Amino acid sequence: MSGYAELAVTSNFSFLRGGSHPEELAAQAKELGHAAIGIADRNTVAGVVRAHSIAREKELQFLPGARLVFADGTRDILAYPHCLAGWSNLTRLLTLGKRRAEKGECELYFDDLLERARGLNLIAVITKIPTLPLREGRKGAVTFLHRLREAADGPVRLAASLLYRGDDTRRLERLAALAAEAKAPLIAINDVLYHHPDRRPLQDVVTCIREHATLEQAGKRLEANAERHLKPPLEMRRLFRCYPGAIEETLVFAESCRFSLDELKPSYPLETRAGFATPQDALAAFAEEGARTRYPGGIPDKIHHSLKYELALVAELNYAPYFLTVHDIVRYAKSVGILCQGRGSAANSALCFCLGITEVDPMLSDLLFERFISAERNEPPDIDVDFEHERREEVIQYVYKKYGRERAALTATTICYRGRSAIREVGKVFGLSEDLTASLARTLWGWSPSGVTEKDAQSVGLNPDDPRLTQVIALAGELIDFPRHLSQHVGGFVITEGRLDDLVPIENAAMEERTVIEWNKDDIDALKILKVDLLGLGMLSCLRRGYAFIEKHYGQPITTASMPKEEEAVYRMLSRADSVGTFQVESRAQMSMLPRLRPKEFYDLVIEVAIVRPGPIQGDMVHPYLRRREGKEKVTYHAPSPEHGPADELEKVMRKTLGVPLFQEQAMRVAIEAAKFAPAEADRLRRAMATFRRVGTIQTFREKFVGNMTRRGYPHEFAENCFHQIEGFGEYGFPESHAASFALLVYASAWIKCHYPDVFAAALLNSQPMGFYAPAQIVRDAAEHGVEIRAVDVSFSNWDCTLEATAGAVRSTASRSPSPVTTGEENILRMPPLLSSPVVTGEVPPKWVEGARAVLHPRHASMRDDILTTHALRLGLRQISGFSERDAKRIEQVRGAGIRSLRDFWLRTQLAPGALRKLAEADAFGSLGLSRRQALWEFRALRRVGDKDDLPLFVGAALENNEPQVDLPRMKLGEQVIEDYRHLQLSVKAHPLSFLRGVFEQRRILPCEKIADLKTGRRTTVAGLVLVRQRPGSAQSIFITIEDETGIANIIVWPPVFEKYRPIVMGARLTAVCGKVQNESGVVHILAETLEDLTPLLGLLSGGGEIRPSAAVTVMPKGRNFH
Amino acid sequence: MGAVKNARRLIALNDAAERAGWRVGMSFADACAIVPDLMSADEAPQEDARLLSAVADWCERYTPLVGLDAPDGLLFDITGVAHLFGGEAALAQDLTQRLAGFGFRTRIGIADTVGAAFAMAHHGKERIVPCGKTREVLAPLPLAALRLPLETRQGLSRLGLKTIADLMACPRGPLTARFGAHLMRRLDQALGAEEEPISPRQPAPALSVEQGFAEPIFRDEDVLLIIGRLTERLCESLEKRGEGIRRIRASVFGVDGRLFRLDIGTSGPLRDGVRLHRLFADKFATVSWDCEFGFDCIRVSVLETQSVSPAQKNFAAGEDDGQTVSHLIDRLTARLGETRVLRLVEQDVHVPEHACVAIPAADAEEFSVPITSPLRGGRNAEAASAARHFGWGDGCGEAPPPEIARDARSQFRPPRKGEVMPRTHDTLAAMRPVRLFERAEPIEAIAEVPDGPPVRFKWRRAVHHVARVEGPERIALPWWRDGKNRPLTRDYFRVETDAGARLWLYRDGLFRETLGPRWFLHGFLP
Hints:
The structure holds two protein chains of two kinds. Chain A has 44 helices and 23 strands. Chain A is α/β, with parallel strands linked by helices. Among the domains of chain B are: 2-34, no CATH class; 45-191, no CATH class; 435-524, no CATH class. Helix content of chain B is 31%, strand content 24%. Chains A and B meet through helix 5, helix 7, helix 17, helix 19 and helix 38 of A and helix 2, helix 7, helix 9, helix 15 and strand 13 of B.
């Protein structure tokens, strides 16, 4: 025999210890010609699946194992299972250690191993040989090895490695003697930490990160040399030339460890249902029953056929239990009133529709179910179910309860270093100052997967030639994608019939009541283990609230399923990009897409959802599609040369999307049809994008993909673009079925917004935080749609926003004449100028019911007949910054018939001073006739009289009567608005910029709404509060959304302008932008040329005696940054 | 910048930074997003305070009554002194100019009361409030001018009370009920309705004694004698406090206004007058003061103390050896200078020539005799003995690497009763020369490729044949020091020649790093 197998390998899944990815190690082992490789990370098997996949790909024997590190001082032991039972023992052992320790820790004792050592091949790693007194020391070691051998019921090996500390010869001799005495064969290892000697710097860096030390401080905690890399078998043989047996032993060992992860056959829960012989029977019956409910008029033929076909397929692959599981979870959620909806490869089938898992009616939409489970690929079905985000925990606990902690656990997510965290940590290790690394990190936007470049360093004023900086940047780049720790996946559940810890170790999650397995979703996928994704979706919470409001206030019970379909009004609204708050299509990118795409039917929404994604964008598919849709380009289909195949081979795939591949499965079909990939190969290509990025497999795929297509007569550019698109899908693949389920929610949310803007705004505000916009924009949007907004008030507001009856429906501006402004009380307010003045309606609202009888903004005039709103939106106490729900509930309980005074309110609610002050500052005592200042004045008296919060009643009463009258200065409206923003993040009184219009006019600054009338190329200046700054990953320019009292404007800042005006772009809260108008199909942008920081102008609003107006300036939101 | 509520915020800016758009109070992160490459430094409140007090010292030229108004203000009582400088305006002018010469920007307010002067300096437009006009001048100023706490100011501002005039217009009762008596007191102080004296600056509360002489003294012996006497007195009072001296200063004032200083630092808390006197004498011998007119005052001040736990005197003859060494170090240091008396400290690095560094012996926190044998006891002995019992409970040759020692600290057990503790020695130290060559000497060696030991080598023109050898010990030099050239890895061998010489030599560079590794001799082994 010749060769060698490395068996002591630590990957970077021994967090901050190993210096290489498992994939790299496996690939390198193959390269060097190792007979096998075993990966044994510190008390974990988290990295083995990755290595297993790559080893399978490269046909290298792979041994999954773990390095057991004990809490009681026992020597490290490498454990490799040689059979399935051994694997289960290992995973149970690790589970035991992890469940009794903190998250991420493992507390193992030698005795634990002795109980569960059967089926394991063990290697004891003894680097310190007892010297004095030699004989006794050795006796201890011999006993130790004997006990191990007894427990494992098989041979135990003694690891021999070269440490290069100068005494290797002596040490090995002693080890050999010990091995002989204990009858434990000596086995050679190199105790590998990285795959290549060049990784030593990175390994030192991670050691420093782990030890919280700089390189200079770390000293002997770093390795003394770079020897712990994978060495070629010949080199190992040379190094162990005195102990050839130890080398041979590695091969014997690998031969004896024939266990492969492919043997793991998770037993899915049987899911037997009472009254049915088999799960398949139960499933068929449930589907039948569901179909009858879905189609009360009789099951259409098409559905009948699909059902039959799908059921047969499910029966063939034996997936009935899986569908029953999902069915049961969905049924539970519905039974407790939690909205939910399925999506995923199998979700949009007739079967899932009939089972109630999804709402996409297969009759209505003509979806192809190509990605539905296929017999050929034998890929497990994948159903994601979205639940209301606030109530998902209930569902999760239901699953834990039903299957028990031994049988169900969440999958893990591997948290990796990203650009920013990498540069920060590496900078720290090199002893760079914190602001230096911070400024480097800041050149990256947020969660950037790419690292800092030397150019970035230069841009923040650092010398890119500084050798230390070069090292930092290079090492930070290498550190990116290194796993840092395991976290819980958002909701992927793995469920088994038997014990789950026979399959994979389970550990505690950071959250109470949660347990997590060690593998992430790619690992689960690779091993074909079934999982159910239970995800949280904010929009579902919003919809549930919306439906409840509609039923309560408009007497119309409604659900996503029962709402009128394909209403023209809804599509009309969306085509105008009037989509603030709706699901998915509310972002800037989507908003600029909507007027060009002009959705007219459900399938258009499906495309709309799918098109603004990394895949189509990177593949440059968006513009061709838009051009074709707008009729500017002829719909053609790329075809191969006639001798290579039928001309319509792609037309079949892409007819629905006008010859442009938009969905992930289309891209895959292109790979199969045009690039002639075998289906299984196409599948590997898809996976490769997510998992094998590091080992260069992609280049091979690219050559084959592009090569095949061009050879078959396709244009080279088209082939390249298709491949870019597949790359773009990467980990965030977006198949048509996902888009379809999402489109349904787009429609449902748009429908509510279209007809009941009051309901929509209230539901959205009550589900915050979610979505793209801040409450101020949501409220403003509702007001523009004719909803009367009423201020927060202790007499009327609940914790949540509520709806209050008003008289009459919305009218448009045209039908109304402005009525005089009521001026009696200064804090009666109006919404100038977009809403008309407050009027007293027939219902005779008391004078404190401030807020405006809103009217429809001319922009939305076309919706006059669609809007059915008859209620006003009463803002809830939740809008007050820092106010607690408990206090709000207390107010709801005790206010009863009415509140007489602040003192009365205080005595009844017993609120703490802080809470009272917040209410006063938020101007919530209007109904008591108290302005904000008066309320604060009264409040201060409450607090001051007694030393403590609970002053005796009579003292307060006495004081109240004897006080001289104090006239507080009145607050100007501008100041009121500022105060509103300070405490509520919005104001129903006015838009802050309405007070600055005079100043703007002097400076020839146009209102934002006016730019829509300008032609492309005109130069203009607008000004507004910065709402959002966005730099999409693929684009170089920055998109800014600004808002004034008339509307919003979208600004594009190209990189050169950005560099010049960086301080203003990033820092200004109020900015003026001068630039050229770009008007494309009704989507208007301004290409910024110059920017000016007008933030100090905000200071004018608070006016008065303040010399430094900065207080008012800092109240306005800073603008949110999206990536 | 400084930390405000866990966030790093800007607390002071220069003009350039302000022009660039930075503002006081901004978070550092926001500021950097605006202009990334401005220089910034962390705040140093103590430095600021020291600077302020130095300026205050200097200002005593105007009036003896200078008070501090931290963090950045000074209060002068110029009652009756303004005319010496040509009136209030001229004084202000003079002060502004002179301070500007030092690079300070000043705002000056002169008024009847401290409060009004503060208000003018911080918020007013004019400098000088004419007598009796305080009320009118203060009225339009913001409330911040009244030196009110932020909370009160904000509370008042929320109510719309923003200027001093607003406050004066309000009835006092309700205001006091809501904001406490402090508010009205501040107003009264500013308006002169309530007295507010300037409290002159307190000197730093250091222990200090001095003696002045009617006739100047000249002789060195006299100076030393007086210093000795004063030191004795200081030691007595320190004894009562249970403290010892770490730094002490003798200030000797010359009749011509010049000042001479002798600063002494000790390596441990000390309050032995005789020893201190000796230290002063040693130091005094190193200086030469040239003072024609003699000295008229000597002051000895304690600058830094450290508490001493009272120690039982040793009955046995001879003093505790630790003490003796420490006194020796003090004396040698005082005589030869700090950088001349050094001790070696072991470093936590792999590279042999950096394994020890020499630091001034006086800098050591406390001087402890290194543990030479485990039976001596002491701080490290416990850990060492614990480490020996790590594992199977029998003696191991080596201490565990630090990470294991840390992980397993809780599992250490004390030695069992009657158990014999084996003698240990640090194997690594035993394998290296006691003293390395200043510079490793190149040799020519013949060795097996790639990493075999030397067979024979030539050093200083003599050929040596290797009889016994052990190794290699492989040590890679730090890769991060020099970005461009990857440093080489050394293979150290312990070698015994046929002539019996024991040497430590190394091959510089592995074959995968360099084609022709060179050989060096680094030291003699014991």
